[in-house]
Specification:
Length: 316
């Protein structure tokens, strides 16, 4: 199997036809078609369904695509690593952020990267923590913010901060105590993310030992929509203070501390120990840690900075 076959295969997938891919690659269409058929013969399976409308991936093709993209990404990392050894950090870096983190940290990280690493093109990916972990291990991400500092095979984790979940409700004049117990939340109608969301899983895990059933009146996957639902009084919610800091400052939402240890989340910055980091990825890793540290110290991110401790990874 030749490296160019991986490149040709991905190009055909992206273009949707041999004709368009040949123009993009500057390779004659018959030669390109022969390379794709040779790849299929070597793999012993058909990668494309061919028709007059173009070429569509088969199930085997979709499986091979995921691996081909990783091979090409690793080759690009290797090329950049050699180039960067005598140059400034440059190239693409993919950083994964949980949605609650993206709400508070996206713009500060982007601004710092543009100012301090002008030759680095940062790709920010916002998703559930479970997806971020999977994509980091598969090589689709270079760095990811994750919750939980327990050691995991294949991951190196650097401790960042402790983030506290808060009871968040509309600013309607109702008197609220400075702190609420977890049991007291059962009296409030709540709007929360679905049960697959990491935030919801933590809330449910904290409630389980108490046999507590919260009154969830709606499940909304978009945290922006969760906040808007709380603002108009559809239901209150539970979110980190940093993700609603603007609304609290503007007076449209109020946040009250939940007096329960299960409402504390530990955040780490994770990398894949099985994939060498480019100079650009290493520079971004240093930068995002500094940005988060400065935000917590200044109060822009209402969380507790935990310093520079690193959780040792499990190695095979």
């Amino acid at each position: 199997m030749e490296f160019r076959q991986f490149r040709y295969f991905v190009a055909v997938v992206e273009a949707g036809s041999l004709l368009k891919a040949s123009a993009r690659l500057h390779v004659a269409q018959p030669a390109l078609g022969q390379q794709i058929m040779a790849l299929e013969r070597e793999l012993g399976t058909q990668l494309f369904d061919r028709s007059s409308r173009g070429m569509a991936l088969t199930e085997s093709g979709r499986l091979f695509l995921a691996h081909a993209q990783i091979v090409l990404a690793d080759a690009e990392r290797a090329r950049l690593a050699v180039r960067e050894s005598v140059d400034l950090p440059r190239g693409d870096v993919a950083l994964g952020l949980p949605t609650t983190v993206a709400l508070v940290a996206t713009l500060p990280i982007l601004q710092a990267c543009r100012e301090r690493l002008p030759h680095v093109r940062l790709k920010l990916v916002e998703a559930y923590s479970g997806f971020l972990r999977e994509w980091l291990l598969s090589g689709r991400l270079d760095i990811a913010f994750l919750y939980g500092d327990m050691s995991e095979p294949g991951l190196a984790k650097q401790l960042l901060l402790d983030d506290r979940l808060m009871f968040v409700t509309r600013a309607d004049g109702t008197r609220l105590p400075r702190r609420l117990s977890l049991q007291a939340l059962a009296r409030w109608p709540l709007v929360l993310p679905g049960v697959e969301h990491g935030l919801r899983r933590q809330i449910d895990a904290a409630c389980a030992p108490l046999g507590l059933q919260l009154n969830v009146v709606a499940e909304i996957e978009s945290l922006g929509s969760v906040k808007r639902a709380a603002e108009v009084g559809i239901g209150s919610t539970i979110l980190p203070l940093g993700s609603v800091a603007e609304e609290v400052a503007a007076g449209s939402l109020r946040a009250v501390r939940i007096d329960d240890p299960g409402m504390l989340r530990r955040m780490v910055c994770a990398t894949n120990i099985g994939r060498p980091q480019t100079l650009a990825a290493t520079a971004v890793l240093t930068l995002v840690r500094e940005v988060v540290r400065d935000m917590t110290i200044s109060g822009a991110w209402p969380a507790r900075w935990r310093g520079t401790a690193e959780t040792a990874p499990d190695r095979p």
